[in-house]
Structure formats: C-alpha cells, structure tokens
Amino acid sequence: MFFQIFVAFSPWNWLLLLVALKYSDASSDLNFANSTAQQWNGNSNARFAAASTEPGERISVFSLDYDYVQIPYEVTLWILLASLAKIGFHLYHKLPGLMPESCLLIIVGVLVGSIIFGTDHKSPPVMDSSIYFLYLLPPIILEGGYFMPTRPFFENFGSILWWAGLGALINAFGIGFSLYLICQIKAFGLSDVNLLQNLLFGSLISAVDPVAVLAVFEEARVNEPLYMMIFGEALLNDGISVVLYNILIAFTKMHKFEDIEPVDILAGCARFIIVGLGGVFFGIIFGFISAFITRFTQNISAIEPLIVFMFSYLSYLVAETLYLSGILAITACAVTMKKYVEENVSQTSYTTIKYFMKMLSSVSETLIFIFMGVSTVGKNHEWNWAFVCFTLVFCQIWRAISVFTLFYVSNQFRTFPFSIKDQCIIFYSGVRGAGSFSLAFLLPLSLYPRKKMFVTATLVVIYFTVFIQGITIGPLVRYLDVKKTNKKESINEELHIRLMDHLKAGIEDVCGQWSHYQVRDKFKKFDHRYLRKILIRSNQPKSSIVSLYKKLEMKQAVEMVEMGILSSTAFLTPHQAQRIQGTKRLSPEDVESMREILTHNMYQVRQRTLSYNKYSLKLQSSEKQAKEILIRRQNTLRESMRKGHSLPWGKPAGTKNIRYLSFPYSNPQSARRDVRFGEFTGDGSSESGSPSTMFNTHSRTGSLQERWLTQETIPMKSLHKGGKPFNFGYQRSPSQEEHTGRVRRAALRPKPLFHAVNEEYESGEESEEEVSPVGSRWTTEHRNVKEHHKSHSPLLQRK
Amino acid sequence: SEASLVRLYRRFRDLDRNKKGYLCRTDLRQIGALAVNPLGDRIIESFFTDGSYSVDFSGFVRVLAHFRPVDDEELQDPKAPEPLNSRMNKLRFAFQLYDLDRDGKISRHEMLQVLRLMVGVQVTEEQLESITDRTVQEADEDGDGAVSFLEFVKSLEKMDIEQKMSIRILK
Predict the structure, then answer these.
(1) Considering only CA atoms, which of A146, A243, A260 is closest in space to residue A196?
(2) Which of B134, B148, B158, B164 to mutate to test the interface with A (most CBs of A within 10 A)?
(3) What is the per-residue pLDDT across A309-366, written as a single tens digit (0 to 9) for each?
(4) Domains plus CATH for chain B?
(5) Which of A61, A506, A706, B89 has the smallest number of Cβ neighbours within 10 A?
(6) If contacts are CB pairs under 8 Å, which of residues 122-161 in chain B contact chain A?
(7) Could B64 and A510 be called an inter-chain contact, meaning their C-beta atoms sit closer than 8 Å?
(8) Which GO molecular function annotations are given, in alphabetical order (chain A) (predicted)?
(9) Average pLDDT of the segment spanning A407-423
(10) What is the pTM of this model?
(11) Is the ipTM of this complex over 0.90?
(12) What kind and span of H or E run contains A81?
C-alpha cells in the first residue's frame, strides 16, 4: 500500500517517505518474529513489478529491486532518522535546557512506533537484544572510557568500587525481596511470581545504565569527584547485574527452588570477582597489545584508528565470549590504550580516532533511545498496577537506602567526604536505561509466564527515571548548589598541584604512613621505566608541567593571532610616534594586506567551555586543539630530527594556505640561544616589570633585520616606562642564524621547543600576541604593541 | 586527636636515632623516601623554624598539624587564633616551601628553583625560564615581578587545597 503511494507521488513528502520506508524496513527486517512482514514485502515487490513492468515479456524500463538493498537501506534510514531528530532537537534552542536529549529521542521513537502500530496494527519491531549488546553498546562505553579523566577516577577508586559493588547488590536483593513480599499479598494477583523471579527482576532493574546516566548528566555539570562516582558506578555495576542475572537464570532453570545449595551461592560470589577482574584483565591486555602495535605504524598511519577500534571491540567480544564483563573490558582497554596510543599515533590519526569515536557513540545512543521509544508501543504489555507502582517505589527507596548507608560508611575513610547534597545527587542519578530493558526482553518466556508484566514494569521505571529525573536534575543541581566543576588550566595550578603532591608524599613519609599518593608515585616510576619504553615509539619523557605549559602557550598563540587580526590600524599611528627612529615602518596598505591574508587563512580557535559535556566538542576545544598542535609539532620535530633537517629556510613567502600550524624547527639550541639569552637578560633585568617572553615566530619573508629586534626591545621598554601597565620583559629571540650574521629570517625558536607558526605569518608579518589567561585587559596594550611590531617578524609576545 | 598524637609520638621516637629527645636534620634525612622526594630538603627545612638545629616534639606536631583535614563543624571563633589546619595556614605552609628567604614573596628566582627541583626531565634551561615567567605572570597582579602571599592564595582559590593537603590519620 505504501509503495503505491510512494510511486504515485513525485514531489515526495520525504518525511512521510522516511517513516513509511522505515515502517516497511522495520516491519520486514527488524521484527524477527513477524513473518507476515516478509510476505507483505514480497507482495509489494510483486505488485510493484507488476505495476511497472509491462505484462508479459517486455523489458521493463523502470523497475525496482528492493530486496537487494533492503538491509543496508533500512539501517541507513534508521540512522538518518536519529540524526535528523537530533538536529531538530538542537535547532530549537530552549529545548536542550529543558530536557536531556534522551527524552526527546524516546519521544520521537514513540511517535514512530505509534505510526507503525497505527497503520499496520502490528507490534512494531523491537530492538533485538543482540543488536543492543553487540553493536550499540560498545561504542558508547568505549567513548566513555576513552575520554574519562583517569586521575580523579583512580583517586576515588576505592569509594567507587565499594559503592558500585555493594550498591548494586543491595539494590538487587532489596528490590527483589520487597517485591516478593508484595507478591505474596493475594489481592494483587501476583502470587505466581516466586522469589527467584522477583530476585531476577530486582537484579535487572537495579542496573544503572551508563548511556542514560551520561545523557542525563550532560547538562548538569557537577564537580569531578561526584561525576566520577556516578560514572564509575554506572560502568561498574553492569558487571554485577549481568552476573546476577545469569546466575539467577541458571538457578531458575534448575527448576526447583529448594535445590539451591549454599555451594551455589558461594560459586555465585566467586563468579562476580572473576567476571569483574577477568574483564578488566582482558581489557588491559588488549590495550597493551594495541599500544604496542601502534608503535610500528608510523608509515601506515591510515590504519591506526582501525587498530584502536578493532582491538577495543575485540576485547569486548572476547570478554563476552567468556561470560566476563565486556563493559569492564572495553573500559579498561580504552583507559590503557589512551595513554600510550596518544603518543604513538600521528596527529591526523589522533583526530580521526577522537571524532570517529564521538560519532559512533552518538549514533549508537540515539538509536538506542529511539528503539526504546518504538518498542514501547505495541502489544507486548501487561499492566498490573500493583507491581508497577511498587517496583517504582521500591527502586527509589532502596536506592536511597543504599546511597546513604554506603556513603556513611565510606565517608569515614575518605579524606574529603561527600556531603549530603552530593549524596542526594547520587541518589537522584539512578537512571535506568536500555540495558535493563534488553535484559527484561531476554527473559525466556517459558520460565517466565509473566514476562510481559516485567517488561511493562521495566519500561515504566525507565521512562520515569529518564524523564522525570532527567528533566529535573538540572534544576536540582542548581538548587542544591552543588559544587561545580572548575577546571581552570593554568600553569600555576599545575605547578602547585605537583608541589602539593610531593609535599604530601613527603609528609606522609615523615609520618610513616602509606597512602595512595605513594602508590601513584610508584606506578608512575614503573611506568616510566618499563612500560613506556616498550610501548611508545620514541621515548621522550615528558613532564606534565612542561606539557601543560606548551599546550597553554600554543593555545594562547593561536588565540592571540585570532584577536590580533581583529584589531584595527588605529593603534598603529599613536605608537609609531613612540617608536624610536630607525625602525622601519610599514605602510598601512601593507598592514591591511597582511591582515587580510591572515584573516582568510587563520586557524580558527573555538571557545572553551569547561565542563563534562560529551555531546558538544566544546569540551575538547582549544585544549585539545592545542594538544593536537603540540602533538603535531612533536611529530614534525621527530620527523625533522630523523631526517636531520634544519629549518627549511628560504621558503617563498605568502604561498601557504594553512589549515594547520606548522612548526619549523630550529635545532636544539644551546650555545647560540644562550648567547642570545644572555644578551637579552641584560635588557630584561633593567626593567621593573615582570618579565615576559617574546617568542619570535618565523618570518620567512626575510625582511627582518636583526637590529629591529634590538630596537623592539627599546620601544617596548619605552612603552613600559610610559606607564602602561603591562609587563614587558626582555625579548628572547633566539635565532639560530644569529651567529651567521644578522639575518633576515627570524626563525626563532622560542624556548619551549616550539613556536607556533602560522605559515601565513611568513607572508604577513604579523606579530602575535598572547593574552594571558589572567589578564584580558592586556588586550588593548597587546594590540598596540602588536601593531607596533607589525613590520617586524611575527612575534609571540606573552605578557 | 588522641590516638594520632600517640602515633606521632611513637614515630617521633622512632625517628630520633640517638634518643636525644629532639630531631635534627640528619634524622629526617634518614627517611629514605624523603631523600628521593624532590622537595625533600625543603620539607625538612620547614620543620626547623628560624634556623634552629633541632625540633622537639611539639614543633614536630605543629608542622604536621597543618595537614589535619579540615573539620567543617568547627566553627570559627573570630577571636580565637585560627586553627593550624585552616586553609590559609595550609597555604602559608606551602608558601614557605617556595619562599626560602622568607621575605614574603616568591621571586622569580625562587620559583625557578622550585620548578627545577620538580621538573627534572630533560627540560632545558630556557624552557624552565619561560615556564617560570609564565607562572609568575599568571599570578602576579601588581606587576612587581614576584608572587606575594595574597597573590599566591588568589591563584589557588579554585583549587581544593583542603583536600590536597590533608592526611587522614592526623584527624
């Protein structure tokens, strides 16, 4: 029927088309139980063929072969629908603030499901559990594990383990037993549900779903330890609930409740441990293998992302084969891999991995929610008021009990306990999701005559938690005034954090106390000595302070350029007056042209937001960008080191069309730079301001005169003494050509082994200025100074 | 608390090799892990106030008291002197580690030294210099080229000092 319409309409109402096609897809492919759909499809094809071909033996001018492309077609359409829903969601601005995306996706799913149901009076396709577990779940977990900040995780590890493990057990058994008691009450008509079944239901309903939790928490940005607890719990209790589920299914199959011996229970407990540890073990092994392999892939960097993804997926599959926890395996794999792979892969691979991971997980998540919505509509339900309501009530009650008691205990052991507010948030974060639903659907009907009731109850709980808790968690966080995350990156903080770590370790030594700081220390040493040598391509031991510093410099460089471009020439004239004679002046037209060139080709800097928002890439933004740049830089460095290049001098100016920053490399310094450095220290010391470094970036046009550099210091000094409140320091412009004479090129290698060079600069001799993270008030002065130096080599000034 | 005091006293006695009743620098240096700690010397120094050569038990405890976890329920009595483990005092202690000459400011030079201690790995001198510069710049607000205590406090206002500088057993 729909196909006829499809043929008849030339201006396609494409949405209807989509839905209709999906309907046909869905009903024909995804509903494994629906055999009539196949017939229907066959019918339609036959009808179609009949319609379009001439009766008889003529060659058909226009025919349609749907069977051939059916499966990929359907899958693509589903995914497209999901993406369109997401786009629509974000286009309407108010909506993301109101409810998490997952809610909307479920609603869309329900709509689609009802359309399908309404038109065909058949139950729409239900998400196959194997599709969920095998295809949709791993990317999400992988992305969660890969981007998880490891340090807070391990710092809170004890608490997380304690809370996730015991919490899941308490919840499962608590809910199970209470429901059993309810079922005993004859009035509700539930007396045929025995204890085991209740326990099983309890175990599957207590599983907090990482997908749903992350989706709900994306909007509410909470502080790190709290986020870690919630996320860690969601990840870890999967293992527990699936194990419980399997054990109880096995018990049920043993037919007789009385046959269960204490031995079995002990075996069950042992199983938990094995499942958990086994999963982690396999994950780590696969992580190491993939890290090791990426060590050798420098020439075929195209397969690096492939290796990363395949090995993580493999770890998941292997763990699932052995009935170990696949989720834990893939998490462990991601965490291990990340450290080493990041340093081994080329920059493009790194970016690819990052974005591809995000894409996959985003698609999976959307699909999951839509499927859940679709599955809701239909005839699979049996509504029993008592059971459903009590399930809901007990879920909340038991979660509250477990949260507050467990945290009360663990707070005794924590240096920094979780406040009651934090605990409320944790309680509120018990969002169930598609995991429970799939498990409910997997229940064998033969053993569970009341399966439909279970399914209904599960769905109700899921809907309730996702919608109600999802929508209200944002306001709740604001209302309770939970401490938000406040990751500000500054060198100061990094430095001081490091200092405090050492200090604390030292003091603890004095006290004779062993704590996890020392464990961490030891692990780091071990890591440096053995692991890194094996797993990392070229072993450049890095200090995190230095890395952070480089990162920040890079970012500021880029930011400064961006800002510097936007400043007007107005500043040029007043400062020309301040210049000492002898400095060359650029004509305004030159300045204009330079600025134009730069504006067109500049690498855009995105804004930063500091929060755990897995959907917007803003989280990564300039931090990761800068990191990318840094990594690229390092790679260029390594390559040029390998090839023994020195700086490619004399490149023609203005030919570049840069989308990335390239870093001409000047040889590791020492003597010359020290000389320069010494020279300028003299300048620096004469100033009263706090020193700042000027990084002269590379100027290839070679119009730079050495003396300009000197002269630049002087104008800077005069500016400084002119009472402008910026801090100018001595200028460091290590030029490696220096000793070869005053050369035009200013390939100056700033001290920290890089300079951010935009090749554009070579053509446009722009100077870049950085705005320190502390003082944006520097901007105006920067611009002044920048204009001031436009004629000179591009400079990176840091105040 | 009582129990932790007793434990500390036992530790004090263990460290005190010759049973002198006080600790001198060499005693503290005997602690192996402290020797490899980059800040080891400075930590040891911090125990000995005003250049004295020995520290008795009360001094020992006093320094360690800085690391007591902050107790939220203790109401601050504005008239009483601030308890030693308050945030300000913790920060003051940390500040002392930087500020060797006790002039109340961390000069660039002092920052450089600390940095050099902590970052040992293949970092060139210029890098250290520029890192120092940047560090000082970030914190320095009045432009005097050094980080005073208040600036130090301000730059760390977002950080969870109480958690970082607390040792549980001292509670």
Answers:
(1) A260
(2) B134
(3) 899 999 999 988 888 888 888 888 888 888 777 777 777 788 888 888 888 888 887 7
(4) 2-164 (1.10.238.10)
(5) A61
(6) 122-127, 129-131, 133-141, 143-146, 155-156, 158-161
(7) yes
(8) potassium:proton antiporter activity; sodium:proton antiporter activity
(9) 76
(10) 0.58
(11) no
(12) helix A66-91
